[in-house]
Design a protein that fits this description.
Elements: E1 8-14, H1 22-32, E2 37-43, H2 49-58, E3 63-66, E4 80-81, H3 83-88, E5 93-96, E6 102-105, H4 108-119, E7 130-133, H5 137-148, E8 154-157, H6 161-167, E9 175-178, E10 192-195, E11 219-222, H7 231-239, E12 243-244, H8 247-262, H9 270-277
Parallel strand pairs: 1-2, 1-3, 4-6, 7-8, 7-10, 8-9, 10-11, 11-12
Antiparallel strand pairs: 3-5, 5-6
Helix pairs in contact: 1-8, 4-5, 4-8
The chain binds NADP nicotinamide-adenine-dinucleotide phosphate.
Length: about 280
């Protein structure tokens, strides 16, 4: 079969997985660009991860996204890891090469930075100190991307301080760790507050913070996109801070992945946003 006739398959692998909106966007783009293919949910337990990942090339899939809880474990199964993903210590995207080799990438940081720039085109990472709450996978991608964008001071604050300390390796001159008990006071004088914890996500309690010390000019951003407006973003909006939710991060990280699998760099349009928002 010639390449133009090939039906290309991709998906998102994780557990739980059916809450993921990635199939909505990729299938929207496949239809929009007239590409023969499909993108699905792959529910995979950790014990089956290796077999599932190795099966990508055996089945001739274009690749897949990797999400919780497999972003770190899946790295071990790659034949090549992109240098940025290596620095982040996690992958969120696998691209199967012509020869069946598995290449791992991490587009989360790219997606996050683009999402902030879409929301605030004149945004700069070096406008002032930035508070980042959380030190999990999302924080790792976001913090390194902020450093690469030129951030001068990042105050990294996590419930488990040791995990925040681990994340500073190689970026110690920019990233300073504060204790969780200092999170409210650390917001004084910052240009940006970013939540990368899971607190405020659907099914989780609201993030336990006070915004009293946060300047009203500070941009408040949440990596979470379910719900679109977390309690943190609602509080920030009501007191007058500009806000940006996590949907743009999801949409933007998907663009380079779609290009790698299906050959077209897709556009984020109002119609696409509407299609995704219709599922909330
Ligand atoms: P993760 O690796 O599991 O990290 C979870 C983080 O939440 C850790 O820093 C953890 O702190 C913190 N946390 C958990 N319970 C807490 C509590 N009770 N109080 C304070 N902190 C608490 O998860 P992740 O991959 O980084 O994802 C984090 C969030 O980002 C999720 O809501 C996810 O949906 C979102 N996300 C969004 C996108 C997007 O495209 N928009 C992409 C990736 C992730 P400890 O270290 O102390 O446990």
């Amino acid at each position: 079969m010639s390449d133009s006739n090939k039906f290309k398959l991709a998906g998102v692998m994780g557990m739980p997985i059916y809450q993921s909106r990635s199939p909505i966007l990729h299938n929207y783009w496949l239809t929009k660009y007239g590409i023969k293919g499909a993108y699905g949910h792959f529910p995979v337990e950790l014990k089956n991860l290796e077999a599932a990942v190795r099966g990508l090339s055996a089945l001739g899939l274009a690749g897949c996204n990797i999400t919780l809880p497999h972003k770190v474990h899946a790295m071990k199964m790659m034949d090549h890891i992109d240098p940025l993903a290596k620095r982040m210590g996690a992958i969120n995207c696998i691209v199967v090469q012509e020869d069946g080799a598995l290449h791992g990438f991490n587009n989360d940081g790219y997606g996050y930075i683009q999402c902030v720039k879409d929301a605030k085109p004149n945004w700069r990472a070096d406008e002032g100190p930035i508070v980042v709450l959380g030190a999990g996978g999302a924080a790792r991608a976001i913090v390194l991307s902020l450093v690469d964008e030129g951030a001068k001071e990042i105050r990294l604050i996590n419930r488990t301080t040791s995990k925040a300390q681990e994340l500073t390796v190689g970026v110690e001159s920019v990233v300073k760790v504060f204790d969780w008990s200092e999170r409210n006071e650390a917001m004084r004088g910052v240009s940006m507050l970013i939540n990368t914890t899971n607190q405020g996500m659907y099914g989780q309690p609201a993030l336990d913070v006070s915004l009293d010390a946060l300047p009203l000019t500070a941009l408040v951003s949440d990596a979470i996109y379910i719900p679109l407006e977390t309690p943190l973003l609602e509080t920030a909006r009501l007191r007058g801070n500009p806000t940006v939710n996590g949907l743009g991060m999801l949409l933007n990280q998907a663009r380079p992945a779609f290009k790698a699998w299906f050959g077209v760099l897709p556009e984020i349009t109002d119609d696409l946003r509407k299609a995704v928002l219709a599922t909330f």
